[in-house]
Please model this.
Amino acid sequence: MLNQAEGFLEDNYKDEAGITAIVALESTLRSICSKNGIKIKDDDKIHIQLKEVNLYNTAKEKQIGDWLRFKDNGDEFSKEDVKRMIDGVNGILGEYL
Model:
C-alpha cells in the first residue's frame, strides 16, 4: 500500500498519496495492537492507546497524531510532508511488525 502512496506522490497526486499513507498507517496501528494483544478501545485514538501501554514514547505518539490529521486537513500538508509521512510509516512497519 505504501508503494502505491509513493507512486501517487511521484505522479504529483499529493492528496491521494496522503490518504493512501493514512490507510496504511491505520492498518499498521491495528496490526501492532493485534500483535501485542491490545484490545482497541477507539479507532480514532489507537495511537494514544499504544503510547499509554508504553509501546512508544510521547514524541512518536504526537508525530503519528499529526499524520492522522491529514484526513481532515490535507490542504495544510505539502508534498514534502506527505513524503516524510510515507517514510515514517515505513519506519513504523519496520520497527514494530
About this structure: The radius of gyration is 13 Å. The chain has a mean pLDDT of 93. The chain has one domain: 2-96. Residues 2-96 form one domain.
